[in-house]
Amino acid sequence: MAVPKRKVSRARRDKRRSNVWKLPMPAFSKCTQCGELKAPHKVCLNCGYYKGREVISKEA
After folding, report:
1. Which residues form a coiled coil (predicted)?
2. Which long-range contacts (CB under 8 A, 24 or more apart) does 49-55 make?
């Protein structure tokens, strides 16, 4: 059975374990009403529409 020849340093061990910086960028989609970028499956913060219906009334 293979056995490590030397102790793995803390820096090398922590570099291997730190995969937090590899998180993917959040997805965005365009609003069908105003064209503003918004998070998918969420109400558009710009116009207040979701799936073509007005959910939050926004004053123009």
Report:
1. none
2. none
Residue 16, domain member (yes or no): no
- The total domain count for the chain is 1
- What pTM does this model have? 0.52
Percent of the chain's residues with pLDDT above 90: 52
- What DSSP element (H or E) covers 38? strand 37-38
What Å distances lie between residue 11 and 4, 17, 58, CA to CA? 17, 10, 52
Which residue segment(s) compose the domain that 32 sits in?
A: 28-60
Element (H, E) at 16: helix 10-17
